[in-house]
């Protein structure tokens, strides 16, 4: 196959991109969608459109539990559509057992973008997005440590480094997906 040409998805399988804040889930999902010639969606963006406010605003105004309820409901809807697609979920979505079960029941492949904390923190700090669950380095580092064992439950793991481009990471992800099939 020629480099840069879209590759056709062989199955209807959905791919859920998980990982901590700042790992590049949305960017990689979009690149992977382009590479595999299928639709890529970002769950947080869908939530923001539906709710007319950002995930951060929902968490700050209504609490994290309400945000997680909305997130779970929309994840269920997106997975139920059943079309081949890439779904980037927020950093906490995978930590909810019911979400992991739903993803497994739909036979979607979960791919963990694993970046070290320093890279995540650098991106969190330099980003314009408000992160109510990572207001300080200490808070973010604690959350990172708590979530890592749960991220390890993913079907596949792709290590992300600062020097990797989105295209390189998407290639690693697509190689992992091929191994899963």
Could you please describe the fold and organization of this structure?
- Helices cover 53% and strands 14% of the residues.
- The chain has helices at 25-36, 43-51, 55-62, 64-81, 97-105, 117-126, 137-151, 166-180, and strands spanning 15-19, 39-42, 85-88, 109-115, 156-160.
- A 5-stranded parallel beta sheet has the order 2-3-1-4-5.
- α1 packs across α8 (166-180).
- It is globular and about 40 Å long.
- The protein starts with 14 loop residues before the first strand and ends with a helix.
- 34% of the residues are buried.
Question: What are its keywords?
Answer:
8 helices; 5 strands; 14% strand; alpha/beta
- CA gyration radius, whole angstroms: 16 Å
Overall pLDDT score: 87
List the strand order in the largest sheet: 2-3-1-4-5
Order of helices and strands: EHEHHHEHEHHEH
Total number of helices: 8
Percent helix, as a range, is: 40-55%
Summarize the structure.
This protein has 181 residues and is of the alpha/beta class.
Reconstruct the topology from this structure.
Blueprint: E1 15-19, H1 25-36, E2 39-42, H2 43-51, H3 55-62, H4 64-81, E3 85-88, H5 97-105, E4 109-115, H6 117-126, H7 137-151, E5 156-160, H8 166-180
Parallel strand pairs: 1-3, 1-4, 2-3, 4-5
Helix pairs in contact: 1-8, 2-4, 3-4, 4-5
